[in-house]
Specification:
The protein has 7 helices and 29 strands. It is an alpha+beta fold. It folds into 5 domains: 72 residues, no CATH class; 70 residues, no CATH class; 53 residues, Roll (Membrane-bound Lytic Murein Transglycosylase D, Chain A); 75 residues, Resuscitation-promoting factor rpfb (Resuscitation-promoting factor rpfb fold); 108 residues, Glucose Permease (Domain IIA) (Distorted Sandwich). Bound molecules: zinc ion. Pfam families: G5, LysM, Peptidase_M23.
């Protein structure tokens, strides 16, 4: 019995264990089943409101992306933005839970806000117009700038006005095309300008010139009374000017010659009036850079920026003879009277030939035109009282019609020495000097040998 009892005990143990095993299997099967049917879903919240349940946040994100695209296509002229409040998700895992990926779309449609915007261009605070975006605005401004600032020599180009690109909310119809805005800039507006009254100006002339009424001038210049204006007065006027001003600075380089100097050295061994070039002079070369400022293409000022010596000039060295030989001319002539006024020149005259130059002066002294030796001093037919000086260098000079002769034949005279007094002796119609220059026997035009300024 003892044996049987123990067997019974074992049997119960086996039954219990089997039952537990089956139960465990059942539970795992159930757990496995439930696990198979667990669903993760996402509650979609906008701010404090739950708007739906979806299987994945991607459903919402994708719908928003498509919406952005659709709005953009419907409003190609402006910038578009689809806004939605604080969008967030709460994740939930539940047995056989449901969601509705379609319902969320119409729910979101109620929550979004569509914003259309553009860029307003403001010039010194005044709106010019609206364009789609900043790049359109910058393109428009560049286009206007390029009209005045093209070429490699442009150093800088900037607007003198303050330009603002301000984002503004607007609709498609409020956008302007670039061409339209460029025309508006060019058409311009009346701008005050300062005007300095010129000699000969009158109020109505100025009004006409600037296409304003005189009334406008009075309004712009309250201190102006009556019609009296003086040259140099400053008036405020108004002139139609483009809305934008482009200030450009251009660089240009100019190459110029630098003239050489000549250094003269007195040479006592060399005859007076002669020169000897020791070193030939040579012009140098310099390069100057100028900066030219223009406003909308109109010249304003030019400044030399820097100067570079490309090649320095070479100074000429010339020996100047100082050796005086009495009675021998220097080779250059001085005027034979002070402050001479020409009355008749060398050349054809009244069907004959006038072989000299006639001159008058308030100063009556006659001076030797160069150093030389008197070879004639006396009366000569037609010439009256007459002196001829041989300069002993191939030249001789003749002085006619004098009232008085102050030197005698064979006398040596210095250049500028007083040799006689102006008169009207011989064939003369009035008091004057008849002056001749001869090369050998040939009478030349004296003005070829005298400096232009008659002194
Ligand atoms: Zn004469």
């Amino acid at each position: 019995m003892e044996h049987l009892t123990s067997w019974k005990k074992d049997k119960w143990l086996i039954v219990g264990a089997s039952f537990m095993t089956v139960l465990a299997l059942l539970f795992s099967a159930l757990y496995y089943y439930m696990l198979q049917h667990m669903v993760t879903r996402y509650h979609v919240w906008v701010g404090t409101e739950r708007v739906g349940v979806v299987s994945s946040p991607g459903i919402v994100e994708e719908w928003l992306r498509l919406k952005q695209e659709q709005v953009k296509q419907q409003n190609p002229e402006v910038q578009t933005n689809v806004l939605i409040g604080d969008l967030h998700y709460i994740t939930e895992q539940a047995y056989k839970a449901t969601y509705d990926n379609e319902a969320i779309k119409s729910a979101l449609e109620q929550k979004i806000r569509i914003v259309l915007s553009g860029i307003q261009i403001r010039i010194d605070g005044k709106p010019l117009g609206q364009v789609k975006d900043e790049s359109s605005a910058l393109q428009l401004l560049e286009q206007y700038k390029r009209k005045f600032a093209s070429g490699e020599d442009v150093v800088s180009a900037e607007f003198t006005q303050n330009i603002e690109l301000a984002p503004v909310a607007l609709n498609a119809g409020q956008i302007s095309g670039n061409e339209e805005l460029l025309d508006k800039i060019e058409a311009g507006a009346a701008q005050p300008i300062r005007y300095q009254v010129q000699k000969g100006d009158c109020l109505s002339c100025i009004a006409h010139k600037f296409h304003v009424t005189q009334q406008t001038i009075y309004e712009l210049n309250p201190s102006l009374k009556g019609t009296l204006i003086r040259a140099g007065d400053e008036l405020i006027l108004s002139e139609i000017q483009p809305l934008l001003t482009v200030k450009t600075v251009q660089k240009r380089t100019e190459t110029k010659e630098i003239p050489f100097d000549t250094q003269y050295v007195d040479e006592p061994e060399l005859k007076e009036g002669t020169k000897q070039v020791m070193t030939l002079g040579e012009n140098g070369l310099k390069q100057t850079t100028y900066l030219t400022t223009r406003m909308n293409g109109k010249w304003v000022e030019e400044q030399a920026e820097n100067e570079t010596i490309v090649r320095p000039a070479v100074q000429a060295l010339v020996k100047r003879g100082t050796k005086v030989i009495p009675g021998v001319g220097t080779g250059s002539f001085a005027w034979p009277v002070y402050q001479a006024k020409l009355t008749s020149e060398y050349g054809k005259r009244w069907g004959t030939f006038h072989p000299g130059t006639d001159m008058v002066s308030e100063q009556s002294a006659i001076l030797a035109a160069d150093r030389g030796k008197v070879i004639f001093a006396g009366w000569k037919s037609g010439y009256g009282n007459c002196i001829i000086i041989d300069h002993q260098n191939g030249y001789s000079t003749l002085y006619g019609h004098m009232s008085q002769i102050l030197v005698s034949d064979k006398e040596a005279v210095e250049k500028g020495e007083k040799i006689g007094i102006m008169g009207r002796t011989g064939n003369a119609t009035g008091v004057h000097l008849h002056f001749e220059v001869r090369v050998g026997e040939r009478q030349e035009n004296p003005l070829r040998f005298l400096r232009p300024s008659a002194e």
